């Protein structure tokens, strides 16, 4: 029985319009909503399957995003250390924010690359 799928799909549609018109991103925490199995199937079937999959391999909190057949709509799943899903999202965005490089990671990468270049140039005659 469909209970909340139509409302969620309409929320996604409005969020997609807001992303296009205003550049506003939106996240729906789907595992926090009372969804029936039929709701989940209807949402996934309506959104379809896209071509892009992103995997964040982290020992503490691995995550995966996959773009749906609707550009700009991503399904995100965050896992615990035992690889069990702990958070599921639908993100309406150009690219999932948590999958992109974080500022502190870039800062650390600058230092790492500088060190590697020092070692590389010290070897050259």
UniProtKB/TrEMBL annotation:
Q: Which InterPro entries match?
A: HupH_C_sf (IPR038527), HupH_Hydgase_express_prot_C (IPR006894)
Taxonomy, superkingdom: Bacteria
Q: Which residues form the HupH hydrogenase expression protein C-terminal domain?
A: 2-119
- The signal peptide, as residue positions, is none
The family annotation for this protein states: Belongs to the HupH/HyaF family.
Protein's UniProt name:
Hydrogenase-1 operon protein HyaF
* Organism per entry: Hydrogenobacter hydrogenophilus
């Amino acid at each position: 029985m469909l209970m909340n799928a139509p409302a969620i799909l309409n929320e996604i549609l409005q969020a997609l319009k807001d992303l296009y018109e205003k550049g506003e991103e939106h996240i729906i925490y789907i595992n926090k909503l009372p969804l029936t199995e039929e709701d989940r199937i209807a949402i996934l079937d309506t959104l379809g399957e896209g071509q892009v999959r992103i995997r964040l391999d982290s020992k503490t909190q691995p995550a995966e995003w996959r773009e749906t057949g609707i550009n700009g709509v991503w399904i995100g799943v965050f896992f615990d250390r035992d690889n069990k899903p702990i958070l599921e999202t639908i993100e309406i965005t150009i690219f999932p924010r948590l999958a992109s490089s974080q500022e502190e990671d870039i800062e650390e990468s600058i230092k790492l690359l500088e060190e590697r270049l020092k070692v590389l140039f010290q070897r050259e005659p």
